[in-house]
Give the backbone structure.
Amino acid sequence: MQDDKWEAALDKIQDQFEVLEQGEESLEAGPGGRVEFIVFNSPMGRLRLERTTKPKVIDKKSFGGSKYGASTGVEYIYSDTEQVKTVQAFRDSNGEWQPIEAESLI
């Protein structure tokens, strides 16, 4: 989601609903990743909307040995210029955030 559309969505939520919490958290996976979120009360109950921004993965290298006990792993190469931005919605279900499928919102 583009920055201007995200800001417009936040403004609309703040105008129409009671905002309980809003902020930003950093991601451990990948350099410079972050999650912006807003928690609010709606007619559907308590909702959390998250926008994740992280660098685009441009290459993935697997490594490991063939001997027993040798370590294996994956090294990700991230873009310095391109970013991936995704939005997810969650519903509070007994104190746990459950993802909301897009079909259930229509």
